[in-house]
Amino acid sequence: MKEKVGWIETELGQVCSKIVDGTHHTPEYTETGIPFISVKDIYNEKVSFRNCRHVSYETHRELIKRCCPEPNDLLITKSGTIGRMAIVPNKPEFSLFVSVALLKNYKSTIYSKFLLYSLENYLNSINISQDIKGGLLKNFHLEDIRITKINLAPLPEQRAIISKIELLFSELDNGIANLKLAQEQLKVYRQAVLKKAFEGELTRKWRKQQTGLPDAGDLLEQICREREKAAKASGKKVKPVKLLTEEELANLNRLPSEWHWVKIGDITLGVEYGTSAKSKESGDVVVLRMGNIQNGQFDWNDLVYTSDKAEIEKYLLRKDDVLFNRTNSPELVGKTAIYNGEKTAIFAGYLIRINQLPILVVADYLNYFLNCPIAKINGN
Questions:
Q1: Which of 53-67, 159-173, 343-357 is most confident?
Q2: b/e 108-135 (16+ beta carbons within 10 angstroms → b)
Q3: CATH of the domain at 22
Q4: What are phi and psi of 139, to 5 degrees?
Q5: Where does a domain end: 138, 153, 168?
Q6: Are 209 and 145 found together in one domain?
């Protein structure tokens, strides 16, 4: 490694005139007065005065005799959440609790920003549980802070390092903002693709290249036949297919001549709610809940179980079953997922199973449709 000319390794106690923590005694708080800062008030490299406590001016004058934060000093949290840092702002005045340490660095030797970044690098690089006081770190003691080693660069190079870090951090922040924007744009693009798919636009060229495609009338006849056949096989009663009225169709998008608007109930054997029985932390069979539907798939973490044989028989999931949330916030109602048979499972009461007929509608097709804007607008 190339030697860094002019750099030295030193301890924080050598570059600070004072390293002290705030008062060890809880003062009497007041509704207004001088801000009293503790670990919860330091985050994002800033001191937040929004929800801090206050003490009287007289109490503040006593507290700062021992620990007096001044502009450009460095603060670091030393208990609770360890290692949060901030540089003391020009105003307002404030006092500190014991959970925060105050570092009064020699400003002619080390810039506060350089000290902050050096300490951040140190805390990121060490194995805290082993390197400080052994075991799980609960406190970063003043003694530990004083003997912490950092690499000290000459002042001109410190300035250059600070500028470079802030430039790169700014670029990183911009990159994160652009990534979030891209993610939002992808959501919009996905919805646009789904909309075109279920208006027939995506397969327009494909249809022109095909011969002998059934028309809408043939499709309706097939729907009626298959529903009757499935109803007889399952012993379930099904209502006859009821065509949408002209008034209903007027509010829907125009479709290709080979397509037809139908209600989901007309191409399935209906829907059913899941079990309302209480689940347990262990058992024979998984009970899938609302929280297990994530991004169109089932998340097999945070599971509950049942061993109730009657419930298992009634609500047992079959491969390619489509389920969706029936209650939640507006953006989460209707979230869907396809059960692929990963584990034997039943489903809980806040989920709905669509008893689809595979010969009429493929599970993936139904799943995509339920997530497209058309379905969200028209409901069924």
A1: 53-67
A2: ebbbbbbbbbbbbebbeeeeeeeebeee
A3: 3.90.220.20
A4: -145, 140
A5: 153
A6: no
Question: To 10 degrees, what angle do helices 363-370 and 155-197 make?
Answer: 110
Structure token digits, residue 111 = 């810039």
Phi and psi for 2 in degrees, rounded to 5?
A: -70, 135
Confidence band (pLDDT; 50, 70, 90) for 346?
Answer: very high
Residue type (1 letter), 18: K
Read off the pTM: 0.56
Single out the residue of 100, 83, 74, 96 nearest to residue 137, CA to CA. Answer: 83
Residue in the block written with tokens 């499935």: 230
In sign, the C-alpha dihedral spanning 156, 162, 165, 167 is negative
* Ramachandran class of 80: left when φ > 0, alpha when ψ lies in -120 to 50, beta otherwise: left
Pair 231, 308 in one domain: yes
Single-letter amino acid, residue 8:
I
> Does 211 lie in the same domain as 114?
no
106 is in which domain, residue-wise? 8-153
* Amino acid 133: pLDDT: 46
Half-sphere exposure of 237 (CA within 13 A, CB side): 1
CA dist., res. 154 & res. 115, Å (int): 13
